[in-house]
């Protein structure tokens, strides 16, 4: 089996080759049953979404002209929480859903923590965990992360949990993404599209707006 990851992030090419991702070390450590030339990584190849878009273009595939159909589902169901990971606030929202249920022992009726959504540089929210108020913050770009880190350094941070994404808008604005000539407005549109996908739980039937223009510029 060959594992290929399609990623919005150029850093994943390096991360896939980090020694801790070499299964050989974890599985065979101590047995000396491998040669020093062997490699056994979790992920064999990483392509960025921009590289994939170029491959689509070279193959003459035009998404706008294809009929809608369901994805293959070789690994079974995915969750709405997985869909929102790519946008700033998504990791926080997914973590809050799980934390709420673990801490309170009750199932959420409304799973949407909308206060951590949106494209502001720093978002704050207070979550009521069955009477216990928990403050959280979400930052994207290192400039905004620095502001939160300086608060922590001074001992003035009120937050129990902080999410930081390096790229503008989160992974949807990652360095491996198709070039987004209109920057902010495209990222906002992608973010809203991701929200709609997870809300409808039928993301596999939706087209992402501007995808075609993104691939044109890739
Ligand atoms: S936010 Fe940017 S650097 Fe971080 S994982 Fe996503 S694409 Fe990579």
Keywords:
alpha/beta; 2 domains; 218 residues; binds iron/sulfur cluster; three-stranded mixed β-sheet
Walk me through the structure:
The protein is α/β, with parallel strands linked by helices and 218 residues long. The protein folds into 2 domains: 4-61, no CATH class; 80-216, 3-Layer(aba) Sandwich (Fe-only Hydrogenase (Larger Subunit), Chain L, domain 3). Helices cover 35% and strands 14% of the residues. It has 8 helices and 5 strands. It has helices spanning 11-15, 23-28, 49-58, 80-84, 90-104, 142-153, 184-200, 211-216, and strands at 4-7, 45-48, 122-129, 132-140, 161-165. A 3-stranded mixed beta sheet has the order 3-4-5. A hairpin with a 2-residue loop joins strand 3 and strand 4 (132-140). Mean pLDDT is 81; it is low at 202-215. It binds iron/sulfur cluster. Residues 8-9, 11, 165-167, 170-171, 174 line the site of iron/sulfur cluster.
Give the SSE layout.
Blueprint: E1 4-7, H1 11-15, H2 23-28, E2 45-48, H3 49-58, H4 80-84, H5 90-104, E3 122-129, E4 132-140, H6 142-153, E5 161-165, H7 184-200, H8 211-216
Parallel strand pairs: 1-2, 4-5
Antiparallel strand pairs: 3-4
Iron/sulfur cluster (SF4) binds next to loops.
Largest sheet: 3 strands, mixed
Distance between the termini: 29 Å
Number of domains: 2
CATH class of the largest domain: Alpha Beta
The total of helices stands at 8
The radius of gyration computed from the alpha-carbon positions, rounded to a whole number of angstroms, is 20 Å
CATH architecture of the largest domain: 3-Layer(aba) Sandwich
Derived from helix and strand composition plus strand pairing, the structural class reads alpha/beta
Helix content: 25-40%
Which strand-content bin applies to the residues?
Answer: 5-15%
- And the CATH topology of the largest domain? Fe-only Hydrogenase (Larger Subunit), Chain L, domain 3
Shape assignment = globular
| Bound small-molecule species | iron/sulfur cluster
Strand arrangement across the biggest beta sheet:
3-4-5
Total DSSP E strands = 5
In the predicted model, the low-confidence regions spanning at least 5 consecutive residues are: 202-215
CATH H-level homologous superfamily name of the largest domain: Fe-only Hydrogenase (Larger Subunit), Chain L, domain 3
Average pLDDT metric = 81
